[in-house]
Amino acid sequence: MAELTYREAVAAGMQQEMRRDPNVVFLGEDVAAAGGVFKTTVGLLEEFGAKRVRDTPISEQAILGAAMGAAMTGLRPIAEIMFSDFFAVCWDIVANEIAKTRYMTDGQVKLPLVIKSGNGGGARFGAQHSQAVENWAMAVPGLKVVAPAFPADVKGLMAAAIRDDDPVLFFESKSLYAVKGEVPEGEHIVPLGKANVVRQGSDVTIVALALMVPRALKAADILKQQHGIDATVIDLRSLVPLDTQTILTEVAKTGRLVTVEENPRLCGWGAEISSIVSEELFWDLDGPIVRVTTPHIPLSAANNLEDMQLPNPERIVASVRQLVD
Amino acid sequence: MNVLMPQLGETVAEGTVAKWHKQVGDKIALDELLFDVETDKVSMEVTAIAAGVITKILVPAGATVDVGTVLAVIEESAGATAAAPAAQPAAPAPAPAPVAAAPVEAPPPSWYAAMPPAMNQAAEQYTPPAAAAAAPGAAAAHASAQRDSHQRLSPAVRRLAAEYRLDLATVSGSGRNGRITRRNVLEFIQTRQSAPTQVAAAPPVAKLAPSPAAAPVARAPAPGPVPASQLGTKVAFTRIRRLTADHMVRSKATSPHVLQAVEVDFHRVDQVRKAVRDSWKAKHGHSLTYLPFIGNAVCRALQDFPHLNSSVEGDSLFLHEHVNLAIAVDLGAEGLVAPVVKSAEKLSVAQLADAIADIAHRSRTNRLKPDDFSGGTYTLSNSGTFGTLITAPIINQPQVAILSTDGVRKKPVVVETSEGDAIAIRPVGVLAQSFDHRAVDGAYSAAFLDRLRRLLETSNWSVEV
Does the model's ipTM exceed the 0.95 cut? Predict the structure, then answer.
């Protein structure tokens, strides 16, 4: 085990796969010489050279168009969209081209590519650089959607995403880049579509993703210590494929579900999970399914308002208590 | 006047309204059929004890309520006024029934709370909208919510209650406003199953015990062939089957049963039966069986053995003054009931025969009254029609003894005559008594059976019919 930061784990996962497979290439804005604006790809240019690690112009359409073409012709590209908000300017390529090509060619053309992107709020970037857009991606058939919370999962899921033959959108939580954690050395793979039960409790099941996982864990500690409520916390790790087995198993044990989402309220991924659980587990539920989300508004630029908008441990605690008491 | 759930026997605490024959606004006459009620072993029709107009029905059909609960209200009428509401069903509606929940304003969708206004609250003050009732009338709505909270059962609680056939009135709720939580129910089930003196918990009807750890993935049908041992059809208990099951388990758990049996020569009884067979049937409308003779002999024998006509009450035995004979009546698929012939010791064989025929007939036509079930002190169970040799019956609580009359067959028996022993063909049958060893000992029971046998074999039965 080595202790790495979340951002170092991004590079570690890419490095592991680039060493293994010469067809893995990487392109994006300021990703090579600068090592990424969030320093997630430091050292890759030095190790793998300018042919495999390329800086691009500031054109998201160009980056993803190039990545799609590379994937169609046999490479396994990783493309970076610096802020996930910018998916909006290249969404046609993602939603209409990358997501659908394998289907429309009857499987003749595969697109083994990864689009990595800094996602979410809490880093003081304002409304256009702080969005959590994992629910956009989840809404498009043909895309896999991954959003890790811990450095070990960053490395393992990045490796699995690169090896996957379908397009994977890999969301890195900007607010977690500095977080440290134990990461297995040597080859490390975490399969896509497998949620992780990070805390086992008996009273309520909290389902969270990415930045919301440590906040849910903090809330679970407060609930246990101050209110005697014992919560299970599930780290989904990926939205597509979705590990419904783990969700249903854990919700059945407690009879109560709270989802904690960073994306805005309407049509957030928690609504999908709420729908699945109420269909599959209605007769096991001991209370309504509760969603904790960012409100349905653009994030504020003011620090205090941004802090208030994102779900935090206090709000999770309040929602759980309202449900369980 | 208020229509109450009637007292349906002394040990019955609740009844189920099976059907309403009248609706709100209907006129009803004295003694006119008003509703059907079901209790543990009886269903009966209830007629109006006042004439008037039904202004309220407070307990819907299918609901089970405590004895004494107001079920409906009849506005007693004098002559012309009675017709008015019936003729004008659309007349001013009566005040809302007290059990009906006051209309509660629908809360806004929960995401509403996440819209901008909620942002003005500090995070610590964040409260989901359900708790933030501030609208006019919220106090009343809140009171209503509190009153109804015990009825707000989550899907999980409803499912567990159905699977374990729980009366949720006996489960205390620890949730907000006393709501019963899933944990309350699971703990209740666990407590009930571990309590040694309690009736064993009814097994879940739908699936194996859903422990909190039961994984939902297990509900997917298992692939592969089903073992032969699992093939079959599940037949859910009827209400009477379940009550019988509960009673039997409770009786076996309560009373240490001892079985004793005697062989009885029914020669003298048979002589009388044969002598009056045709005239009896013509006069009484039913056949004269062995049972009233046995019942008569039991009553007489019990006069000398009163401890078998008793109930255990704590550290004492309560000796009943009268012999109230409970007669087990088989209703076929419907189950088993044991209506009671009161003060049977005062009846002749003929009177007892009529009384038994009456309650048996009323049992099979569902016309027993609640009182017919109460007060039994000794039970006769008759398997004899099927030619059984001997039956070990289970005591009908809170009695201490029960007699099974089994098949009577012609057999060669040794009879003592003035000219020495001889072999004769006699109708012989076994009478088997289970008694509660807490109440009496074997010698006492055996002496009773000996007296019973002698009475049956030596009485002059011709004077009885």
Answer: no
